[in-house]
Amino acid sequence: MKITLQPSDNEELEIMIRGNLSDPQIPQLITALHAAKATSRLFLYQEDKEYLCPVEEIYYFEAMDRKIIAFTKHGRMEARNKLYELAETLHHSGFVQINKGTLLNVRQAQSVQSEFSGNYLVILRDNQTRLTISRKYFKAFRAYVEKEL
Description:
alpha+beta; five-stranded antiparallel sheet; 149 residues; 23% helix; 36% strand
């Protein structure tokens, strides 16, 4: 593999891959580039205190009573972002939206079960938390798990 760095007048960083695009190293490179772009910490709030929380400690976010609550290994904390902002920010950090009001850290998922209604049930690694993946979001969830992770 050859790496070439070339200056440009364009402010935006551009990465171009040339060669045999069926090379098995290409998906690995893309995954590494996404990981470099991933967000590793977020500011979360609890009782008027601000905490810098590593994203791997967050199980999921849920919209509740006009607030976004982060469920973490340290308990519930409030996020001061909108759910769609968190979905964009954390996309390359292992988070995907699973229903209208929930953003899941897929690394915390242990298993997925289909339900009679057409929705799915995801069981987290703690073996207690069960979240609904609506059928509208399941295809994107599955593609994310298979592609990003």
